[in-house]
Amino acid sequence: MNIWLLSFESIYTAKVGGLAEVPPRLGEALKKLGHNVYVLTPSHGFAEKRGRDHLEELLSIEIDKVRHGIYLYDKPPVPHIIFSGGILDHLEIYSPKHIMDKIRVWSILVRILLEKKSETGIQWPDIIHGNDWHSVPVIIAAKTVLEKPSENKRFIYQIHLLSRATLGIDQVSTGIGLDPHIPIRGIYGWKTIREYYELSNSYADRLGALISDKTVTVSREYVKELVKRLGWDLERYFDYIPNATTWKLPEIIKSVTRIHSSLKSDINVFNPVHRRSLRTYTELKALGTMPQREPVIADHEFRVFLERISLEPLMPDGKTKPFEAEGPLAIMTGRLARQKGIHVLLKSIEDVIFNIPTVRILLLLLPVWGERKLAEELVEAASLYRENLRVIFGKAESLYYLAHMSSDVMVIPSLYEPFGLVALEGMITGNMVVASKTGGLAETVKDIHLYGLNGTGLHVEPGDPIDLASKLSDALLFMETGYREPWGKEWYSLVEKINDRTLRNLLYSNPEAPWIIRKSSHNRALEYTWEKSARKALMIYTG
Amino acid sequence: MASVNFIFTIHFHQPHGQLKWINEKIYVNSYRLLLEIFKKYADLHFTVHISGPLLLYMIDNHPEWIDEIAKLGDYGTIEFLAGSLGEAILPLLPRSDRVDQVREYIRLFEKYFGLKPRGLWLPERVWEPSLPIPLAENGIEYVLVDDSTLLRAGHPQEDAYYAWNTEEGGERVKVFFIDAGLRYVLPWSSSEEVFNYMMSKATDTGDRVLVWGSDAEKFGEWADPGWARWWLNDFLSKLRLRRNEIKLLHPTEYLREHGVRGLIYLPTGSYDKMLEWSNGFFRNFQLKYRESNNMHKKMLYVRGKLVKAPKIPREAWNLYYLAQCNDAYWHGLFGGIYLSHLRQAIYENLIKAEKIAEEEIGYYEKHEPVIKRVDFDYDGRIEVLYESRRLNAYFKPSDGGTMFELDIKRDGYEHNLQDTMTRYPEPYLHGSGFNPDWYRRVSLRVHLWEPSTTLHDWINNTPFKDNSDLALKKYSVSITPSDELIMRSLGGYYLAGSLVSRILVEKRIKVRDNELSTTYIVENKGDKPVTAKIGYEYHLAPKIDRTGKGEPIGYIVNGEFYTRDNEWGGITRQVVFKAPDYPDIKLETRKDEIYWIAPLNMLARTEKGFKPIPQGIAVMIIREKTLRPGDRETLIAKLELP
After folding, report:
1. Residue B200's domain spans which residues?
2. B486 contact A CB<8A
3. Do B294 and B323 sit in the same domain of this protein?
4. CA distance, residue B464 to nearest chain A CA (Å)
5. Which CATH number characterizes residue B394's domain?
6. Is A388 on the interface with B (CB under 8 A)?
7. Using a CB-CB distance cutoff of 8 angstroms, which residues of chain B are in contact with residue A351?
8. pLDDT higher than 70, residue A110
9. pLDDT > 70 in chain A, percent
10. B 512-571: CB under 8 A from A
11. Closest residue, chain A, to B397 (C-alpha)
């Protein structure tokens, strides 16, 4: 099958959020199963930066008197078709000022690419698999070319994160060179673009679902959200393809020991002595010795902003001072966004500190547009709770894997989370996960209350700082017992501080429980492979 | 012939914690006088209530008075009303306390009087619809409520001249109404005028009842005792002669003869003035005065410990019940919450009860100190409580990172040293030049005063002198493994409303057995210099000797003693607070600093003008500095405690 994956970002070109990860990974897995796959994505400056290296120009088109190029980028495991030129090369991927223009030009270029099949040699796809609302106008543009009686093309629309984005009728018709009266096929049969647009109430996600053969998301739990938000008429067209992680522990360890040469190469993250020394190293050394180039903050304005608001322990260049003493470590990763429940974690932090004065919490966050206030709150919090909290904005390669390998608990306090890939990353590196019971997290993380030693963490009520503080404290205390002599005074003292009776009982019946949970987490993450996701996608593609 | 019934109810009460010399003065001026009057007119029928705290005082100090007044009960002259052991406002209490307060009063009363009262005097006549339940559970048949409460229920004034039934959840109690009109003439008008008023309510059926119920101190204490004696003799001797028109009788007599008029339901209420002072609802006092709420919530907190100790001695509960004595929880025109010795007694009892409970439940067996985050004052924000066998220190991060309670728990010295009182706006102080406090007068508050600020500006609240928001800002709070508390806040220094520079304040608090040491760090985190008088503020309440003997309260600076009504400003490194029969308390810095010391006085309006009422001693340690960007000022201040 020929499969085109439409994605507004990609790890191989430009990345901000989790979306960048999924289509290329799925594409790679589909390719391994013998399919012909392309990821179609705007350049966001990538093509300009890359020059000619591995880029083959397929087409050169003038739009709005600006020269645009369509390139084949064959270096990644799954080939990318990159749309470049003009606004498409603006560096900020989701800049509110430019996003609609980017989508418009991308849609026009995809239509031209299809129309000029003979010039490019790129075959028409059997499957067009759009990802998130930015791809909806592109799907419509593609449908106007591909939907012919002789062609049996299928359109799949995948929602990784529901959006409240709306589109104007011009943005799905005249604006991208289409007559609104052109008929397209959707769940209500053949209707004009305008008719489907009107049925969508202008919501991009609903429009995408109305005009696609199937709408998929990333978890069973999140399907319920889709039904609630997009409409009950779409219920039977919904399905899900779980995400997966590409993280492989040996590779991670190799990468970490390459960066941190003082660490032994035979590190075993399931060995208490190794893991604790890693934790000490991360907290006291690595945090304070990031390489010159780190953290990488793509957004220039955010860099300037950070310089202005920085307060110790955060430095103006985004680096941070290390902790002053070692202690139980919880990490949180993801985008700097309210959706991630960062403010909930901040509200819970005092409680956690009072339960465990030695707690260390490390946040590794990718800045995005529109969350300046939250960033300020975090910088202030890191200063006010400087004994216990560190925040790093931007990519910090030297720390990212290392933090996962050193920590005891991964905390994911998201208000909602379609899938929550970070949970798999936390689990594969042997962390207990304290996660909101929402979306994919409700499935990937197995609550210890239900699964005992086969569990991988604890679920918390999304948005509830008291519940979060209690579970996070308990999880950290629980894991910390793994570093103490079972039945010793210190061990008892930790166990008695645990509020949750189930956790206490697990320890009383088996003091090795923290290390068993680490293994259970690791094994659980291994269940989520891109190959499995690709097989599920194929089932959906073929109806 | 028209006639009316008359119930003459005299309420004897002095609060728990009253100064001994005041009790004795009132005893001589009023209580002894009234006893003589009762004996002289023993053929008449009086109704009397003696509050729990006063009853305990009289048992200890004037047992002969108790014997004689009890005898009058025996002879049928006096019908006694029950009360609550602590003269507590019952609706403010947890449900089971409402029952227990009355039960304990009756238990005490029965022991000395040999009978159980059938009616009950409601403290401050505060009525809430839930009261029939605890009253009925104690077998109380009737209560006296103010007619204003009846009028608030929409009834006509005429209904106040009868007894009524009311109920809550099927538990019933009878209600008499105290007549406001009669209260305003008796004893302030001539007996003739009082009789005329009474007769204006008389009817041919003779089934109406006029109830007078008020303080015993109106007879001999509030006005000249000689006049009171004359007035009562005049009134009661004439009343004897008019007994066919005005029938002085006991409430139970009235009920026997006339029964109740019917069923009514009453809203919350009290007497007219109380409604005015409390904006219509007694519980509002807890909102207006944070110190009132503090005492109330401390009471609830201690209760939480008492109930965990089922075998706790009754002594602990009695201390607790007396700490519910109402006087210190509110304020009208005089005294009340502004009387430090009353607040002091409340805390003293609560601390003693708390200690007994802690001992009983092994509170510190696992870990000492206990440090916890709780919403102590129920305002939705978190407070931090530091508790040990020797002291409690309570902190409020949301109110400028301050300390609002400091309980000394050493045996025999139980005292809340932080029981200082903020000076609130009071209607009677309009035009006095008094500026109410703009923040709660507690300790550990940091100010960034404008450089021209003086001691007088500070203590008298000259506006716009504190140029930062840090005094009131929310502080973060964390704790170290060695139980050191850290509070921090990032605020600003402002000029004319514009931010000049960001200022980070850190307070590191280390509590030991007899010491509370605070390291303050003030750091300029902005990019402009800031010149200010940095002020580190303490307010302390040295212990008052309620027995009235001993030396005056004051302080020693640089070797010289000053009484607490003196201001002092200068350079020193230590202030020693002196109180009679109480160990010294020291506030010191490592090196010489500028100290401002001032009396924390509230004003009371008296016939002789405004009179200061001490609420504690205020200390401000001052450093005048220019903080350049990145500069930090460190100051360590230590409180040495008994």
Report:
1. 4-277
2. yes
3. yes
4. 27
5. 2.70.98.10
6. yes
7. 373
8. yes
9. 100
10. 525
11. A350
Whether A350 and B366 lie within 8 Å, measured CB to CB: no
Tokens of B253: 């007599």
Q: Does 3.40.50.2000 match the CATH number of domain A2-244+530-541?
A: yes
Final residue of a domain: which of B231, B261, B277?
A: B277
CB of A385 less than 8 A from some CB of B: yes
Question: Given 3-state DSSP classes, what are the helix, strand and coil percentages for chain A, each rounded to the nearest 5?
Answer: 45, 20, 35
| Chain B neighbors of A350, CB-CB under 8 A | 373, 382, 476-478
Report yes or no: B382 at the A interface, CB cutoff 8 Å: yes
Which of the following CATH numbers is that of domain A249-526: 3.90.980.10, 3.40.50.150, 3.40.50.2000, 3.40.462.10? 3.40.50.2000
Residue in B with minimal Cα distance to A385: B478
Both B253 and B354 in one domain: the answer is no
Exposure string of A297-310, with b = 16+ CB inside 10 Å and e = fewer, is bbbeebbebbeeeb
Domain residue limits, chain A? 2-244+530-541, 249-526
What predicted TM-score, i.e. pTM, was given to this entire model?
Answer: 0.90
Query: What ipTM is given for this predicted complex?
Result: 0.89
Q: What residues are paired with B62 via a beta bridge?
A: none
* DSSP three-state, residue A176: helix
The reply to whether B375 falls in a domain is no
Contacts of A381 in chain B (CB under 8 A): 476
Per DSSP, the residues of B110-177 read HHHHSS--SEEPPGGG-B-TTTHHHHHHTT--EEEEEHHHHHHTT--GGGGGS-EEEEETTEEEEEEE
CB contact under 8 Å between B480 and A387, yes or no, is yes
**Same domain for B146 and B80?**
yes
Task: Cis check for the bond before A96: say yes or no (omega within 30 of 0).
Answer: no
For residues B188 and B321, membership in a common domain is answered with: no
Q: Is A381 on the interface with B (CB under 8 A)?
A: yes
Q: Is residue B398 part of a domain?
A: yes
Q: What is the pLDDT of residues B471-517, one digit of tens each?
A: 999 999 999 999 999 999 999 999 999 999 999 999 999 999 899 99
Nearest to B563 by CA among B551, B574, B572, B546: B551
Tokens of B306: 């008492």
Chain mean position to CA B462: 28
- Tokens encoding B606: 């008296």
Structural domains in chain B (count): 3
